[in-house]
Amino acid sequence: MATLPESALMQRAAAGLAAVCARVLGGPYGSRVVLLVGGGDNGGDALWAGARLAHRGASVDAVLLRHDRVHPAGLAAFRRAGGRVVSSADVPLTPETQRAIARADLVLDGMLGIGGRGGLRDDAARLADAAAAEAGLVVAVDLPSGVEPDTAELTGPHVRADVTVTFGTHKLAILADPAAQVAGHVEFVDIGLAPYLPEPVAGMLEPVDVAEMLPAPERNSDKYRRGVLGLLAGSAQFRGAAVLAAGGAAEGGAGMVRFVGPDEVATQVLNRWPEVVTSADVADTGRVQAWAVGSGLGDGRAAEVAAVLDTGLPVLVDADGLRHLPETLDGRALLTPHAGELARMMDADRGDVEAHRLRYVQAAARRWNATVLLKGSTTLVAAPDGRIRVNPTGTPALATAGSGDVLSGLAGALLATGMEPFDAGSAAAYIHGLAGQAAAEGSGLPSASAVLDALPAVLAALHSAR
Ligand SMILES: NC(=O)C1=CN([C@@H]2O[C@H](COP(=O)(O)OP(=O)(O)OC[C@H]3O[C@@H](n4cnc5c(N)ncnc54)[C@H](O)[C@@H]3O)[C@@H](O)[C@H]2O)[C@@H](O)CC1
Ligand SMILES: Nc1ncnc2c1ncn2[C@@H]1O[C@H](COP(=O)(O)OP(=O)(O)O)[C@@H](O)[C@H]1O
Ligand SMILES: [K+]
C-alpha cells in the first residue's frame, strides 16, 4: 500500500469483484443487487464494486451496518453512480431492506473480511440469514463474513456464500473446513500482492508440484529404486483392507510390496495382486524401504506394530495401528487418522476435532513428532515443524469404506521412494483425491475398488504434466 497511490489496491479488488458479479449475473444490466456494507475496508470493496455495477445498468441498494463508520470514498462513489442507501441510521434491517434482499438477484456480502473475528452479531447475523433464505445468489467479498480468517473455524453466525471472490492470496478460511464449506465456489482476484507476502502459513499443491515430486522410472531402474513397501494390514475380520492397501501401493508405483499377515489374508491379497510377496512375520519380511501399518488390523497386534516401528524405517501408521503409538516418534512417521481416530488419540471429542481441524492436526504433529494427515472433507497435512498443507482435490464420494486403505497403500508407496513424510502424505492425498473425482465421474458414488482402478490413469496424467 505504501508503494501505490491511495486506494489502488481497493480499486483492483473492486474491479475484479464487479467483473465476477457481472459474469454470474449474466450481465449486470437490469439486475437487482443489494450490498451488505460493514464499517471496514471489506465494506469499501463492496461499495466500489456496487458503483461499477450501477454504472453498467444494475439497480443497486446498499444496507449500511453502521452509518457512523462507512468507507467515505466508497460511499461517495456509490452515490455518484446512482446507488441508493436503504437502511436508516443504525437500523440495518428495515422492512425496505428486507424487501430489497427478497427481490435481489445478487447480494454482495461486504460486512466483514480479514478483520472479522468472533462471528456475526445481531443485525449482521439477521442480514446473513435473510440473504441465505431469500436472495438469489450470495457473493462474499474476500471471505464469507463471520468466518475466522486464519483458523477456518466457525465460531458464530456467518454468511453462506454461493461464490467467494478473494483478493491477493487465498485465506485458510476458504480452503479448509469447516469454514470452506460456506465459501461456495472460490474466485481469485490477483491484486499484485505476491511479491510482498510473507511465507504462507499453509500451502496447497498444484499438479506440477505433485508431478515433480513423483520419481520417474529411469533407464537403470530396479525395484529398489522405485521403492519397496512392507505392508502390515488386514486381519481375518478385515481381509479386504489388506487387498485394497496392497492395491494402493501396487497401482501407486511401488517397485514391490512385501505383505505380512495371516495366511488366509495373504491368500486373498495374492489372488488379487500376484506381484505381492508375502510372509507371516515382520522379522522374515526381507528388505523394504518403508512400512505401512494398520489398515484393517483389528484388535491386538501391538507386538507386530512395535516390531515395525523398531525397524527405524519411514513408516505410515493408519487406522487400528494408531492404537499402538509409542509416546513419541522421531519425525520419520506419517500418521493418517480420520477425525474419530484423531479424537481418540488426543483424548478429545470427535465434534471438537471437526470444528478445530487445523488446531488438532498441528497439535498432534507436535505431540508425536510426526507428520499427521487428517482425513475428511478437507484433508490437512501437518509436519512437526509447523508446516501445513491443505489438499485441494477430492470429493465427498470418497467417503466410502476402504478408500482410506487405498490411501494408506499409496502414501506408503510414496514414502518407500524416499519422499519425506510431509511430501508423501500431501502428494498421496492429492492423487487419491483426483482418483476419487475420476471414479465419481464414472458412477457417481464409486466404491473404494473403483478409486483404486482410477489410480493408474491419474498417475499417467500427472507424469505427463511434468
Ligand atoms: N489489506 C489489503 O491490502 C486490502 C484489503 N482489502 C479489503 O479489506 C478487508 C479488510 O478490511 P479491514 O481491515 O478494514 O477489516 P474488515 O472490513 O474485515 O472489518 C472491519 C472492522 O470490523 C470490526 N469487527 C471485527 N469483527 C467484528 C464482528 N464480529 N462484528 C462486528 N464488527 C467486527 C473490527 O473493528 C474490524 O477492524 C479485506 O478483507 C478486503 O476485503 C481490499 O480492499 C484489497 C486490499
Ligand atoms: N466428506 C468428505 N469429502 C471428501 N473426502 C472425504 C470425505 N469424507 C471422507 N473423505 C475421504 O475419504 C477417505 C476415507 O478414509 P477413511 O475415513 O479412513 O475410511 P475407511 O477407513 O473406511 O477407508 C479419506 O481419504 C478421506 O479424506
Ligand atoms: K465478506
From TrEMBL:
Binding site for (6S)-NADPHX: A241, G296, H338, D405
InterPro entries: CARKD, Nnr, Ribokinase-like, YjeF_N_dom, YjeF_N_dom_sf
Residues in YjeF N-terminal domain copies: 1-199
Binding positions for AMP per the UniProt entry: K375, G376, S377, T378, T379, G404
Molecular function GO terms recorded: ADP-dependent NAD(P)H-hydrate dehydratase activity; ATP binding; metal ion binding; NAD(P)HX epimerase activity
Keywords from the named record: ATP-binding, Isomerase, Lyase, Metal-binding, Multifunctional enzyme, NAD, NADP, Nucleotide-binding, Potassium
Quaternary context: Homotetramer.
PANTHER family: ATP-DEPENDENT (S)-NAD(P)H-HYDRATE DEHYDRATASE, ATP-DEPENDENT (S)-NAD(P)H-HYDRATE DEHYDRATASE FAMILY MEMBER
Family statement: In the C-terminal section; belongs to the NnrD/CARKD family. Belongs to the NnrD/CARKD family.
Protein name as it appears in the record: ADP-dependent (S)-NAD(P)H-hydrate dehydratase
UniProt organism field: Phytoactinopolyspora mesophila
Lineage: Bacteria, Bacillati, Actinomycetota, Actinomycetes, Jiangellales
Gene: nnrD
